[in-house]
Structure formats: structure tokens, C-alpha cells
Amino acid sequence: MTSWVLVDPVAEARRPPAPEAVVSHTGPLRRVGFFANSKQHAAEIQGAMATAIAKRHQIEIRLYRKPNASVSATPELLANIATECDAVVTGSGD
pTM score > 0.85 for this model? Predict the structure, then answer.
């Protein structure tokens, strides 16, 4: 006999970040990060975008990637992105 487990797909509401956790950037962008989620084609799409933006705006590009699409980014990776970049572009390759 097969048994089923019904899982509620609705997530609980997240609390907003504390005011001291929100960082606002002012001034010109010097380093822009591209954070690929490891879905198919995400890195290729973001790499092409990064190349075009770097040529047009004379900025430094940083590329980041999660180990795979089904897991969250590690706190260390997120901390690196936050400290190394003035802005970050994220997205899916699907």
C-alpha cells in the first residue's frame, strides 16, 4: 500500500531585515557581480550580459555561482558578494 504525505507549499511570511542590515550604495558603480543560480544556461546568459556591460560602462565584473540550483547559497558566498560588489544581477537561465 502506498502512503501519501501532503505538504503545504505556502511559505511563512519573512520578517523584513533590521534597518542596520540594509546597505544603500551611493556613488558610481565600480564592481558589478553576476550571481548565477546554476540552472541550465544561467552562467552563459550572465556572462554575455557582463561582457556587454563591462565594455559599455567601463566597470569591473565579478562572476559568482551556486554549487547547484537546488541548494541555497552559502553564507560565505553571500558575504563575499556583499563585500566585493557595488551591485549584483541575479537570475535564472531557464
Answer: no
Q: Which helix (H) or strand (E) holds 90?
A: strand 87-91
Task: Judge whether 45 and 92 are in contact, CB under 8 Å.
Answer: no
CA 71-82-46 angle, 5° bins: 65
Specify the pairing of strand 87-91 against strand 31-36: parallel
Contact 90, 60 (CB under 8 A): no
Outline where 11-67 has alpha helix (H).
42-57
Per-residue pLDDT tens over the stretch 63-94? 998 888 888 888 999 999 999 998 898 876 56
Strands 31-36 and 60-65: parallel
Task: Enumerate the domain spans of the chain.
Answer: 36-91
